[in-house]
Amino acid sequence: MIRAYKFLLRPTARQAAALGEMLRDHCSLYNGALQERRDAYRHTSKTSVKYGDQSAQLKEIRAFAPEWQGRWSFSSQQATLRRLDKAFQAFFKRVKAGQTPGYPRFKGVGHFDTVVFPRDGDGCRWNSTPDHRQIRVRLQGVGHVRVHQHRPVRGGVKTISVKREGNRWYVVLTCDEVPAEELVPTGVITGIDMGVAHFLTTSDGEHVANPRFLQTMADQLAEAQRHLAAFPKRSRQRTKRHRAAARKVAKLHARIRRQRADFHHKTARALVRDHDVIVHERLNTAGMTKTPAPRPDPEQPGGFLPNGAAAKAGLNKSILDAGWAQFLHILANKAESAGRRVISVDARNTSRTCPECGHVAKGNRVTQAKFQCTACGFAANADHVGATNVLNRAGLVLCAAA
In this predicted model, what pLDDT tens digit does every residue of 235-282 receive, in sequence order? Predict the structure, then answer.
């Protein structure tokens, strides 16, 4: 298996400054390569510059500015150019598919936060010091940086990435041939129904509360954002106070993100530990949180009818705060490592189908929490009914696979 390990870096003040310079220089390289492609498209009969052409120029660029681009890893600079080439490939793919293209844009220094080293030992080395009591990673141009390794690394280290999140630095190791740590079989299968009132409900009737991390921090976040917005546009990104206000907003968002990820990991681990097979709905979170289309008023040219956008915005915010997509991704990874199985089934009408008689009707879902079949009168918790239907549909999937 391929797995990624993310550890907190503890650089010195000088190393943190060097890491910041490394990001800025790679950002400059990315933007310069993007500008070259734009100019070539506009002025050279619309011929495009390929990755190979730009990679061949790196040797001259490094020789021309040894104190600037020359001090960083050649392989990491190639990875930055590949990142730009991948963005263009995705752009042309969307153009051919008739989708919204989204031409690659220039990166601001504050938004370029990752440098990739394609191979361990080429410009970087994991745990390169002989003293294994203090784990360190050696980065070309930065030095040996201390790592807070909170769990063992298994498999072979293939690529190393350095990432900045707010004022913190992380190292991300991508390892292959990671052995599976299979758990003892339990013989239990369960279905889960994702929701907003409850984060999830199992087919056994167990409810997992929705922590609503964003809602809990909403007041602090709103105050920090109001303070940031109070700065006049002329002084933005120019004063020390504005930068401090921006860092505070970013710090609150990072805290919410870490709390949500920690909750997802713990919840997924509990499900994987207690069940051999876990069945969940196949959710399209992007489609579920899409803004409603405007409704033109036929009687008033240029006017629009109410489309429920305000109410939908609140639901969208709750769905995104719960982070269903991230949780299901974490659940699948943990299940694979533990030798468990995760099955996704069609989510349509799971909360409107009676598990007793199979009657499907919109009126079966009386309220958010109550289900009552209009045909047979069966009544139960709506989320529990949804989880039961999800589990029942797993049988159809297994029969079709057999």
Answer: 556 788 888 998 899 999 999 999 999 999 999 999 999 999 999 999
- Of the three residues 176, 198, 228, the one that is the final residue of a domain is 176
**Residue 390, exposed/middle/buried by CB under 10 A (0-12, 13-18, 19+)?**
buried
Report the candidate in 391, 281, 279, 402 with the shortest Cα–Cα distance to residue 343.
279
What pLDDT digit, counting tens, does each position of 300-335 carry? 888 888 888 888 888 899 999 999 999 999 999 999
Residues 52, 142: one domain?
A: yes
Q: Measured between alpha carbons, how far is 295 from 170 in angstroms, rounded to an integer?
A: 46
Residue 147 lies in a domain: yes
What pLDDT is stored for residue 401 in this prediction? 47
Minimal CA–CA distance to 205: which of 195, 191, 188?
Answer: 191
The structure's pTM equals: 0.86
List all residues 6 or more positions away from 312 whose beta carbon is below 8 Å from its beta carbon.
291, 292
Per the structure block, which two tokens stand in for 248? 């505070």
- In this structure, the chain runs to a length of 402
- Domain encompassing residue 387: 189-401
CA distance 29 to 163: 17
